[in-house]
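Membrane protein, Amycolatopsis rifamycinica. C-alpha cells?
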Amino acid sequence: MPARDRLLAVLVAVLWGLNFLAIHATLGQFPPVFAGALRFAVIAIPTILFVPWPKVKVRHLLGYGLGFGTGQFAFLFIAMDTGMPTGLASLVLQASAPFTVLLGAVFLRERVTPHQLAGIALAVAGMVAIAWQRSGHAALLPMILTLLAALSWAFGNLSTRKAEPDNPLHFTLWMSVVPPLPMFALSLVMEGPAAQWRSLTTLGTPTGLTALGGLTYVVLIGTVVGSGLWTTLMRRNPAGVVSPFSLLVPVVGLTASFLLLGERPTWLEAGAAAVVIAGVLLGSLRPARRPEPELVAA
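C-alpha cells:
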C-alpha cells in the first residue's frame, strides 16, 4: 500500500472519528430520529437527480438502506441523545465487525476461522466489561441501543455482499434514498410534529447554527468525502490492508471527545476499549494462504 494511500486512510479515520462530534452537535437542536431523516434526505435529493443507478437488485439496496441507514442511525442517534458518551459510541459501534462475521456464517454460510472466533471472543469480553461499567451508572440502555445500531450495520453489510455493486460509491449514495421516509414516519410517531417544527424554527439560535454546522459536516465531510476516499482506497488496495485503518475511528472519537467535550472514560472502560479494538482487528485479519507446492517434472 503506497504511503499516499496510508495517509489517505488515516485521514478518513480522522474524518469519521470527528463525525461523532458533529452528530453530538446536531442532536443539540434536532430530535434524534428527525436528525437521521434530515441527514439522509439532504443526500437523497441530489442523488436521485444526478447519480446513476448502481445496477443492483432493488431488494439488496433496500436491505442496505434499512440496515446500514435506517436501523443503524436511528438506534445510534437515540442512544447518543439518551446519554451514550460520544467517544464510547464511536467504539461500541465497531461491534458491527464481529456481528458481520457471525451473521455471514449464519446467513451466507461463510467459514469462520479460529482466529476470527478468538477476535470475536475478545471483542465481546470488552463489550461486556463496558456494559457492566455502564450498568453501574444506570446507563445500560444507551449501550444496548448502540449495540443494536452495530447489529443493524452488520445486516446492511450482508446486503452489500449480496449486491456486489460495480460502483460502491453510487451504491452508497443511492442507499441514502431509502431511510428518509421510514425515519420521518418514526419521528412523527415517536417525537411528534411539534418537536420537528420547533427544531426548524429555532435554527437562528447559537445552538441551531451549531447543529447546522454539525449536519453539514456529517453530510459533506463524513459521508461524501469520507466514503468517496474510502471507496477509492478499497479499489486501489486489498480490502484486508485498508479495513484495519477503520480501527483508528474510535481512537480519534475517544480522543476528540476527551479533548473537546471533557468526556473521561474510567480506567476499566479504557482497558476494555483496547481489548475491543484488538479483538476487532484480530477478527478482521485473514490468514495468508499457504503457497501451493510446486510440481517438479520427473
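The first helix runs from residue 3 to 26.
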